[in-house]
């Protein structure tokens, strides 16, 4: 029993890492069945095969011998390898194989002899050596250069009665011989030029007619320029066709291809990169995809075709079986086709990533010249489904409410919204440079099958919402979008969300806000994974995650968090916490206890990552440090943490653990005396400092703001040149919002009629700036500040702030010249006024407003005179 366990352990270890093995230990073995002797030209073929045959400790069935500069294969050299199941000889210089050297390899299933110098493609159409009938996969591409090999034929492989997969080079003006129709086991043929040589400019009805049993055909990068209508008609079992990377083919020939496909079992069609990278945007026309309507296609790949528009009504002809569309790397723009997305009634997955990419200009010289469809051999086919009456019938059959027929692109925007595929489960539009404010957006009909949404790597800078609704989305990725705003209703339609990826945004201010912080995520009660890394978070509202009872993983890495004081009452499943690259020096006790409790209840280890934080030995953090050492196995990357002792010196992990274990002794002495003295001194200083600060509170606030503006704001030009200051406004009007009608209806018309320029917070404050900074700049930019005193003025904190800042401006910044004018709008009891206001009114003149006719005239005369002084 012990031997079995030991052998199992050895197999597991060997399987996970490559170990030296083989002749003289010059090969690598990933497990007891696979040996890799590639790139060891001094190891002879015979020596390797003798090792395979004679070594009883391992059972080598897969052997890699690539790039060893072997020139020939003889029977005597490889007889020790007869037990192999897979043999890879790619990239050698083999030009000769002895006739019967491989015939007795009865277990061989895979043989790769690509990138050699074998006479595979000759005018006889035969191979110069025999192959075992056990073969299922044969790779013979890139043997000699066949691009200009006139008269070359495909080799006769009809004796391989079990062969399933063949990889060959594509020959120009050459048809597959009739012998291939006899290979009933053949399932796939690859002629791709991406890993071989392929040059088939013209595909006729006869080119592949004898590949009657294949299910997959790869013709990528074969320089195909034209296809006849019956090219694939006789491939009745064909399920997968790859025509990608034929950059001179274009959509103009697509109908010819699709005509033949209607007689096959086609399920997957790849028509990516049918155009060179650079050029004008392309358009999918109605006739390009005509016959797809009559196929059972389930996957369509349209990547990198510069697609900008889709003709109106093209989507009506999408087959009802279509489930997956890949259209990455294009240039989609708005068009009427968006109102027909509902025609894709069975579509489950759409991949539209990497739209509008900036391409590497070096590709221009490597690709064929750009041509359009007009330079190709024209098709003689007419699309029988393009007639308006046929399209209308198909539209009605599909449901003309979600799949409307549009005549002359006529869309009534007030009655119709872009429809959505009802069966859609996955939608990806990442890294497309999309720049939008995600405001309210209704998506009809409700996509209740949608589960996966990825809009990462764009510029969706504001998430207001609500969107959708998307009642069953489980995964949402909006990372890397420069977002700094989230509306309280944005996540209302994602109530079943389980995985939210919103890292690399600017959400720190939103999540710390006392109004938004507790409410932004309150609807995400089923969330399991949340990634908030790299969001400039320095503080989180305690209730930010209060409703997330299913949350298991929380990633707050790469932020500026110092303290994580969050409400953990409902976090009953939280077991993974990522806090690396912050400024955290402790984890609150209630959070630590919650992690332990969850771990015990769920029978699952909790993990915390505190890499790249400030972790120092301190008596104040004694409980946390002892907890961290106790649970060091739960601390991810603990051995790589950076620790400091009480003196600030960096210490090793071992020394840190030792010092923490001795904290009881180091922190116990004189603790009571230190605490008592500290409390006494703190109370005394608090009283003294508090009194001084309160007495001079407005002076301090003014000086702090002025200092901030001077050091972090701008310096006016007149300060450089000692010129008289030129003000932007004649007066800044300070008033309570309740008095706004007096300001707008009476004061503004009167003053502006005298040519005076006024500054009002409702119209002149810069949005996004700190309110206090806006006030100071308004006072500084105005020759006078007018405080309109009313009972509501005295109740407003900001009004009092404006009054006191203007008072300080008069004292400190105007050379003793008063810039503050007080207007008493209504009778206000002096008991409601602050001491600062009463002191100012005792030593400075103020003006009382009256509605009595003569008194009002006198008021305006005095007021205008005060403003013009």
Q: What can you tell me about this protein's structure?
A:
- The protein is extended.
- A hairpin with a 5-residue loop joins strand 36 and strand 37.
- It contains 21 helices and 42 strands.
- Among the domains are: 101 residues, Ribonuclease Inhibitor (Leucine-rich repeat, LRR (right-handed beta-alpha superhelix), Alpha-Beta Horseshoe); 155 residues, Toll/interleukin-1 receptor homology (TIR) domain (Rossmann fold), CATH 3.40.50.10140.
- The longest helix has 25 residues.
- With 869 residues, it is of the alpha/beta class.
- The chain has a 23-stranded mixed β-sheet.
- Helix 13 packs across helix 19.
- The N terminus is likely disordered.
Keywords:
869 residues, alpha/beta, Leucine-rich repeat, LRR (right-handed beta-alpha superhelix), Rossmann fold, five-stranded parallel β-sheet, disordered N terminus
């Amino acid at each position: 029993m012990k031997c079995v366990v030991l052998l199992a352990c050895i197999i597991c270890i060997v399987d996970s890492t490559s170990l030296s093995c083989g002749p003289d230990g010059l090969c690598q073995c990933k497990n007891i069945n696979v040996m890799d002797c590639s790139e060891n030209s001094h190891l002879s073929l015979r020596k390797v095969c003798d090792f395979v045959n004679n070594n009883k400790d391992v059972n080598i069935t897969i052997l890699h011998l690539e790039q060893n500069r072997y020139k020939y294969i003889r029977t005597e050299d490889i007889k020790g390898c007869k037990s192999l199941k897979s043999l890879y000889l790619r990239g050698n210089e083999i030009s000769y194989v002895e006739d019967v050297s491989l015939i007795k390899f009865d277990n061989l299933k895979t043989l790769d002899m690509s990138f050699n110098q074998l006479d595979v493609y000759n005018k006889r159409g035969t191979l110069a050596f025999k192959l075992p009938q056990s073969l299922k996969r044969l790779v013979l591409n890139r043997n000699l250069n066949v691009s200009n090999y006139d008269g070359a034929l495909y080799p006769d492989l009809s004796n391989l009665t079990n062969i399933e997969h063949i990889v060959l080079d594509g020959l120009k003006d050459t048809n597959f011989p009739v012998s291939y129709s006899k290979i009933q086991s053949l399932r796939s043929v690859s002629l791709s030029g991406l890993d071989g040589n392929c040059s088939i400019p013209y595909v006729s009805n006869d080119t592949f007619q004898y590949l009657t049993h294949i299910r997959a055909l790869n013709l990528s990068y074969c320089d195909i320029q034209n296809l006849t209508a019956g090219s694939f008609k006789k491939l009745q079992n064909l399920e997968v066709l790859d025509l990608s990377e034929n950059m001179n083919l274009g959509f103009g020939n697509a109908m010819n291809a699709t005509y033949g496909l209607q007689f096959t079992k086609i399920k997957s069609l790849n028509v990516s990169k049918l155009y060179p990278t650079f050029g004008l945007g392309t358009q999918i026309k109605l006739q390009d995809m005509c016959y797809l309507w009559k196929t059972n296609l389930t996957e369509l790949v349209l990547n990198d075709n510069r697609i900008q528009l889709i003709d109106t009504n093209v989507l009506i002809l999408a087959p009802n079986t279509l489930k997956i569309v890949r259209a990455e790397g294009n240039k989609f723009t708005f068009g009427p086709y968006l109102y027909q997305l509902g025609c894709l009634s069975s579509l489950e997955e759409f991949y539209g990533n990497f739209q509008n990419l900036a391409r590497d200009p070096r590709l221009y010289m490597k690709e064929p010249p750009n041509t359009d469809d007009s330079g190709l051999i024209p098709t003689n086919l007419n699309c029988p489904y393009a007639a308006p009456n046929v399209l209308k019938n198909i539209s009605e059959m599909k449901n003309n409410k979600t799949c409307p027929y549009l005549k002359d692109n006529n869309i009534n925007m007030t009655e119709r919204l872009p429809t959505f595929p009802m069966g859609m489960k996955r939608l990806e539009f990442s890294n497309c440079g999309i720049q939008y404010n995600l405001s309210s957006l209704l998506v009809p009909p409700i996509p209740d099958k949608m589960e996966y949404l990825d809009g990462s790597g764009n510029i969706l800078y504001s998430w207001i919402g609500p969107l959708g609704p998307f009642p069953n989305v489980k995964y949402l990725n909006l990372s890397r979008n420069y977002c700094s705003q989230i509306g309280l209703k944005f996540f209302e339609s994602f109530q079943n969300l389980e995985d939210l990826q919103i890292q690399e945004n600017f959400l720190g201010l939103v999540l710390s806000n006392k109004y938004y912080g507790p409410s932004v995520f309150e609807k995400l009660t089923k969330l399991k994974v949340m990634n908030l890394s790299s969001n400039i978070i320095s503080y989180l509202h305690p209730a930010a995650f209060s409703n997330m009872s299913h949350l298991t993983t929380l990633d707050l890495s790469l932020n500026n968090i110092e303290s994580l004081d969050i409400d953990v009452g409902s976090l009953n499943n939280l077991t993974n916490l990522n806090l690396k690259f912050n400024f955290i020096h402790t984890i609150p006790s209630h959070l630590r206890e919650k992690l332990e409790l969850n771990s015990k209840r769920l029978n699952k280890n909790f993990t915390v990552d505190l890499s790249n934080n400030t972790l120092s030995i301190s008596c104040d953090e004694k409980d946390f440090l002892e907890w961290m050492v106790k649970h060091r196995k739960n601390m991810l990357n603990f051995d790589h943490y950076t620790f400091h002792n009480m003196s600030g010196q960096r210490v090793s992990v071992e020394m840190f653990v030792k010092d923490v274990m001795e904290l009881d002794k180091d922190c116990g002495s004189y603790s009571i005396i230190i605490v008592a003295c500290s409390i006494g001194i703190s109370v005394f200083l608090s009283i003294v400092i508090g009194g001084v600060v309160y007495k001079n509170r407005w002076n301090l606030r003014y000086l702090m703001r002025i200092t901030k503006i001077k050091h972090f704001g701008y310096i006016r030009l007149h300060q450089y040149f000692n010129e008289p200051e030129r003000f932007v406004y004649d007066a800044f009007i300070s008033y309570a919002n309740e008095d706004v009608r007096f300001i707008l209806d009476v004061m503004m018309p009167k003053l502006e009629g005298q040519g005076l320029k006024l500054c009002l917070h409702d119209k002149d404050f810069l949005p996004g700036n700190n309110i206090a900074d806006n006030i100071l700049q308004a006072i500084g930019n105005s020759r006078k500040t007018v405080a309109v005193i009313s009972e509501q003025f005295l109740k407003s904190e900001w009004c009092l702030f404006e009054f006191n800042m203007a008072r300080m401006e008069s004292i400190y910044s105007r050379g003793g010249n008063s810039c503050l004018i007080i207007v008493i709008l209504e009778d206000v009891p002096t008991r409601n006024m602050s001491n600062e206001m009463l002191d100012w009114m005792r030593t400075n003149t103020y003006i009382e407003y009256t509605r009595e006719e003569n008194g009002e005239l006198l008021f305006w005369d005095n007021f205008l005179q005060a403003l013009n002084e």
